[in-house]
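User: Round two. Same drill as before: sequence, then structure, for each protein.

Assistant: Same drill it is. First protein:
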Amino acid sequence: MKSYSVSILLIFSMTISFGQRSLLPIDSISGYVSYTQIEKIDSVSANDLFNRAETWFAKTYNSSNDVVQKSDKENFTIIGKGQMKAHAQNFGARSWGYIKYTISIYCKEGRYKCVISDFIHEGDKFATASTYQPSVGLFTKTTPQATGMSGYRAKDFDRICQELNEKVTKLLSSLSSSMSKKLESKSDDW
């Protein structure tokens, strides 16, 4: 009975450690990793949704002025370039560079669309020999094969993919929460 339980545990752990790439959504046209969220928010104008998105950028990023590349109030569109740290949780957290990405928010009457895409991993330039992780580059459906990853590096890439998925999911959840809340009215009575 013990060997049966151990075998199931080993199969399960292999699925976890080698299967994280499958968590990442791949755009069927470009072949790139891309997250898309479309939400209806009844009875809210495109202008109000645009203002909520601007407020979300300001509260989410340390310097939204550095992140936002284009803010088009006429077309209710915001496009930004963000980045997040990339670690692999192996013998403690180690900085393995950054993943840069593009975030685009499009607002229409009663709905918005958010696309987070163009994920590019850049290895930590200041890492020591024991923590150095080379750059992976653009995340696509063929990234591991194209970069010749196998064994240890493939496991690290899977861990980075898992972390990327968790962080982007939290980012989208935060946006969803902010977009569904009415902005506080400005009052001079304070």
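Second protein:
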Amino acid sequence: MSPTRKIVLQADLKPRKEANGSRQVTRGAPRDSSRGTPRDANFLAWVLLAASRGHLSRGWFDIALNAAESRCLEFLKHLATTQPPSWWHYSRFLVAAINAQPVAALSAFRAGEAYPLSQAAMSEVAEALALAPAEQAAIWRRGSYIFLCAMGGHDDCWTVENVAVLRAYRGRGLINALLSRALEDGAAQGLEQAQVTFAIGNEAAERAYAKAGFSFGGERRHPEFEAVAGAPGLRRLVRQL
């Protein structure tokens, strides 16, 4: 797993004048034990929930967990700290902070390395929260609609996921800075292509990714997906590293 890194964001990020308003980007700080809560876990729980929703009122975790927001956040706080370093794990994240407070984040990883750990990570959390086997099965059943529009077969792609920024800090260049850092990381690993996938209709996300050099790479639509999620399907953007 990557060590903690601090990167001062460039000065051309449309800064808002603040006293002592320096900005930094840090990797979620590693800990020796997967027990306990790394310092970013609470914020990353919010990021996971907000990113899954995108422009919609409910996202995959709302639908699959079928629980109140507080319960979803509790589940996601655990999910960010599981033993398997899935694509939800804190070590996959870059986090932007202002005045030492996290305000934006995204995860970046090789698809074939992190996605296959999803079920193991979810199962660990379900067991930690003492969810009955029937409820664990129900989570996957409720969330199975996502596979109707999933686009696999890109294991060697450097993948950007779980992108979110607090509302008060939007429009200030933080996501663009995080994307730039993430793409540099993918190139440094010798990968040739990056990808990002989001719900069709999330125009703000599409503009941000286009600004970072991504272009259309495909989409999948399905009426059952739309009936559950409220969006026609998923769109994939790609760019060379």
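The domain at 18-240 is CATH 3.40.630.30 (Aminopeptidase).

User: Perfect.
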